[in-house]
Specification:
Elements: E1 2-7, E2 11-18, E3 22-29, E4 32-39, E5 45-54, E6 65-72, E7 77-83, E8 89-90, H1 91-95
Length: 96
Amino acid sequence: MQIWKYELSPGRNEIKMPKNSIVLDVQEQYGKPIMWVLVNTYVPMVTRILDVYTTGDNIVKMPGDYIGTIQLNSGSLVFHVFESSHKLKTKQEDRK
């Protein structure tokens, strides 16, 4: 197993990672929003969908499972991270 990190951006993030990976935390690192994930490198890759909203964004539907909140620029920019309920697509499903 390893811990991988992913940089997030506002809006929809489609992130490929090993199946059943565990999100450990989301935080600011060097001024960027980062997510750390515990992964098993011996399982197939899947695409997980994370939506990143800023405070005040209009959210049209329930955003999914809450992952965490990240504050940047001494709290002047705040991101809220959610994982969509349609989160797991295997590499084979991506090809369809």
